[in-house]
Write a structure and sequence with these properties.
about 375 residues; alpha+beta; Butyryl-Coa Dehydrogenase, subunit A, domain 1; Butyryl-CoA Dehydrogenase, subunit A, domain 2; Butyryl-CoA Dehydrogenase, subunit A, domain 3; 3 domains; four-stranded antiparallel β-sheet; three-stranded mixed β-sheet; 9 strands; about 15% strand
Length: about 375
Amino acid sequence: MALFTDTAAWVSTEHRLYADGVQRFMEQSMAPNIESWCDQGVVDRDFWFQAGEAGIMGASVPEAYGGAGADLSFEAITIYTQAYLADINWGYGIQSIVMHYLVAYGTEDQKRRWLPKLVSGELVSAIAMTEPGCGSDLKAVASTAKRDGDSYVINGSKTFITNGQTAELICVVVKTDLAAGSKGTSLIFVETDQAQGFQRGRNLKKLGMKGNDTSELFFEDVRVPVDNLLGGIEGQGFYQLMNQLVWERSMIGITALGAMDCGLQQTIEYVRQRKAFGQPIMAFQNTRFKLAEMKTKVEVTRSFINDCIAKLIDGSIDPATASMAKYWGSQVQNEVLDECVQLHGGYGYMMEYPITRLFADARVQKIYGGTNEIMKELIARSLDV
């Protein structure tokens, strides 16, 4: 299986070579460790360095800042391959988002300070958006950052933060002007080794993504330099978030496709081997029809995702289309993997089978990045009615 279709115009020889290299690396260095990551609740810190050394982080970051200077299609290949090999634990998607905040809006000093270290794995990043009192409604963020001389003083708490136990560089969504609503939102970077008053809460126990450190974070009078304000201008945070959500939501659709390819492949292999009533499960018409339905859904999704990637490359993708990729991809992912579990029978409920982990990991895809209900609202707003 592959992310791209045979007729995808955006695919070059370089894409195919890159995809082969990423898959080899992940098969050798990621896949054998997934179970241990799930058991320990966090990805080995050394894996980030290995990924950096292999050149699979920051492919679309400009060469001047340590990247390969390619476009987002190469990042898409990395995201897809991770999911195709049955992993959603490694929080590279967040790392990629933070890199592109910096590429798009960072000052020259911010780019030079942080991007090379993010590309190499020397820094792991997180985005602290969600709060106990607000999820998809980012306008309701209550955390504050008050200017005090050459510093901002940050107060507030965050929850459900991917890479929360590991991250050394955290992009925090705060209000720098409480009276200005969404126009008072800013993004400020916190370097955790320099942040007195910063605390990590517990590593949250989840239905899926058990190998990812998802945490609560607390900020009590955390003082950071004014230079850590993304872009150097207050009140730009909501605009910055909304523009970069296009990539985040596209990534969720790409992840969904990889996970479906993985689950479908595993299920086909299983029903060919497993017997019931003296014959392989594959021999039953219901099994073949279910597989036919799933394969059709997957290929329709692949075509749409490839179209989205082409638009990411030329910059023409809009928020509504990215919302469709997120909504459709995650919805179909859950439908397909539910059918895959059903065809596995009782074994589909056992954690020793990867399909079970894929099924559990899929559920959050309809929630994070903006719930699917919010996606429908955003899509509806784009209708010419």
